[in-house]
Amino acid sequence: MPLAGHARRYDRSVRILGIDPGLQRTGYACLETLPRGGVKLLDAGILRLSTAKSVAWRLRELDEDLAGLIAEWHPERMAVEQIFAHPKHVRTSIVMAHARGVVLLAAQRAGIAIHEMAPASVKRAVTGNGAATKRQVQLAVAARCQLATPPSPSDVADAMALALADIQRAGAIR
């Protein structure tokens, strides 16, 4: 079930870095497409930012951590969650926007193509349900990446889901 967009298979392996931005924890996952349409998980984890430090400090810390990931994995694409605003959680959206700005800048600075996706689109791509729970996303990602256990915490699963949704959008996996 490809997402809207131009469906095509990659004619070679492509590395996609999925980023779930935050100012306390930023989830990341680097996936690589396989020649026959599959996907391989190369790395995934959390960038933990010091909550005892100022926002400006954490943004610099995030930038340095992202530069390290980009230098290590050389991704060609970056999938990033779009900002969503809920009336009850406006502050969360503002804080996420700070981190997202650093993520987008890091990708732009490295010449990496950026694909931004709404959370519901990502959930729909990996689970078939745009209102899927965190647990459903974790289970779907584990199945797609052939993991023995679901990725945890959910920031890691969300980053993996972003990368998978981007690959699926491009038509490289179904």
Describe this structure as you would to a colleague.
The protein has 174 residues and is an alpha/beta fold. The protein has a single domain, classed as Ribonuclease H-like superfamily/Ribonuclease H (Nucleotidyltransferase, domain 5, 2-Layer Sandwich), CATH 3.30.420.10. It has helices spanning 55-73, 90-110, 119-127, 134-144, 154-169; strands spanning 15-20, 25-33, 39-48, 77-81, 113-117. The protein is globular. The protein starts with 14 loop residues before the first strand and ends in a 5-residue tail after the last helix. Mean pLDDT is 90; it is low at 1-8.
Report the span from N to C terminus: 6 Å
Oligomer: single chain
Determine the structural class based on helices, strands and strand pairing.
alpha/beta
CATH class designation: Alpha Beta
The name of the CATH superfamily reads Ribonuclease H-like superfamily/Ribonuclease H
Main sheet makeup: 5 strands, mixed
Q: Helix tally?
A: 5
- Strand order in space, largest sheet: 3-2-1-4-5
Radius of gyration over alpha carbons? 15 Å
CATH architecture: 2-Layer Sandwich
Spans where pLDDT lies below 50 across 5 or more residues: 1-8
Q: The CATH topology is what?
A: Nucleotidyltransferase, domain 5
Q: What fraction strand?
A: 15-25%
